[in-house]
Design brief:
Strands 1, 2, 3, 4, 5 and 6 form a 6-stranded mixed β-sheet that branches. α2 crosses α4 and α6 runs antiparallel to α7. It is built from 17 helices and 6 strands. The N and C termini lie far apart (75 Å). With 401 residues, the chain is of the alpha+beta class. It folds into 3 domains: 143 residues, Globins (Globin-like), CATH 1.10.490; 107 residues, Reverse transcriptase/Diguanylate cyclase domain (Alpha-Beta Plaits, 2-Layer Sandwich); 95 residues, Arc Repressor Mutant, subunit A, CATH 1.10.10.2840. Pfam families: GGDEF_2, HTH_30, RsbRD_N.
């Protein structure tokens, strides 16, 4: 605060300027409208509101020059807060005040010249610019504090809506509509969900991905947690996932899982689960982007992790309880048997051993499990259990029942 009061000569000039107040207000209003487009177009305030604001602020300035003591800057604070809430840009706001305050100064110049009182003019000039500094500082501080509060509130609301979207807490269409509006996403659009493992607390595994997607005209919304950076990405077409996957690969710094393409924002929570499953399938310690398979069986297994893990442990438990080396060899052989559609020759080529060795391992598997690779029911259960073990590797570590 630099202005602390006025001098008698300045007070006299200010009293004379007070008489001219209607003219000063009209002149300031006219120049602001002519020189600043956002006020001319009534984008943030109407002309009536602008005229009233001009009068209030010019009365403050001239009144402060008339009276002694520290001026009351509450109107500056109130104006700063109101314009911030209206979204008016700060540079144009300050420019409007400079135009209005300059009108007062020019009026004081005219009055001082008419009286030939140069000393009073110098003192008035010093006082008016000190007041302008105090006023604009109070206004700017209030404006910035209000903007920061608005941004913080919007950010918190955005995070809450994202949490509701990713958790599936969007039971009503109205809530979904509000989420879509706030996140600038289409309610009935086509999307993928991305789940990327964070390299450390507060670190993004996909730095700058939202801006990179926006530049390619893909809207997205992201949430960063201690373990995961999750995002829902809008596709321009149902078959348009490939450019997004390519962009993810360009920006990834670690493991990234991607859901299948899906429609409808209300399905985001399930898609996040599938993206997390895809993430779990990526090799630890690598930079890899993995999209969840469209396999119906994989989707069924992933839809209920607890039940699927229980099935895997129940069906494969005799193998899981073997020493690690034996367990890994037999599980690898069994997976290859399914991938190669039961061809012993192809399995041998895949696991680099003789076909007789494959037959011996398969016999050991069926003996350990008490199941047959010729029985369709046993084959279905073994295939499902293997799929669950692949999607949820921690299954092998479940406590014994």
């Amino acid at each position: 605060m630099r202005y602390t009061g006025t001098e008698p000569a300045v007070a006299q000039l200010a009293a004379a300027a007070w008489v001219r107040m209607p003219k000063l207000v009209e002149s300031a209003f006219t120049k602001i409208v002519a020189e600043i487009p956002v006020y001319r177009n009534e984008r943030f305030v109407s002309h009536g509101q602008l005229r009233a604001s001009c009068e209030e602020n010019l009365r403050f300035l001239v009144g402060a020059l008339r009276e002694s003591g520290t001026p009351d800057l509450s109107s500056a604070v109130a104006t700063g807060r109101e314009r911030a809430r209206q979204g008016a840009p700060l540079p144009e706001l300050l420019r409007a005040f400079r135009i209005g305050f300059t009108e007062v100064w020019q009026s004081l110049v005219e009055l001082a010249e008419a009286d030939g009182d140069t000393d009073a003019l110098v003192a008035a000039t010093r006082g008016i610019w000190a007041l302008i500094d105090d006023y604009t500082e109070a206004l700017t501080s209030a404006y910035r504090e209000t903007v920061a509060s608005i941004v913080r509130t919007q950010h918190e609301k955005r995070l809450a809506l994202l949490e509701a979207l990713f958790s599936g807490a969007t039971a009503t269409q109205g809530v979904l509509w509000e989420i879509a509006r706030m996140l600038d996403l289409s309610l009935d659009g086509t999307f993928v969900v991305v789940a990327a493992q964070t390299p450390g607390l507060g670190q993004e595994p996909l730095p700058g991905i939202e801006n990179a997607l926006r530049q390619r005209h893909h809207a997205s919304a992201w949430r960063l947690s201690p373990e995961l950076q999750a995002g829902v990405v809008s596709l321009r077409a149902p078959e348009g996932a490939e450019p997004v996957l390519a962009l993810l690969k360009e920006n990834a710094t670690g493991r990234v899982g991607v859901s299948p393409v899906f429609s409808g924002l209300g399905n985001t929570a399930r898609a996040l689960h599938l993206a997390r499953v895809a993430l779990a399938g990526a090799m630890p310690g690598t930079v890899e982007v993995v999209q969840f398979t469209e396999s119906p069986l994989a989707g069924l297994v992933a839809s209920d992790p607890e039940a699927s893990a229980h099935l895997a442990h129940q069906v494969l438990r005799p193998l899981l309880e073997l020493p690690p080396e034996d367990r890994n060899v037999l599980l690898l052989t069994l997976r290859a048997w399914f991938d190669c559609r039961g061809s012993t020759k192809l399995v041998a080529e895949r696991v680099f051993c003789h076909p007789n060795t494959v037959r011996h391992r398969l016999k050991k598997i069926t003996d350990e499990l008490g199941r047959s690779l010729a029985d369709p029911a046993d084959i279905a259960e073994l295939g499902t259990a293997l799929r669950a073990l692949t999607l949820f590797p921690e299954t092998a570590q479940l406590p014994r029942s």
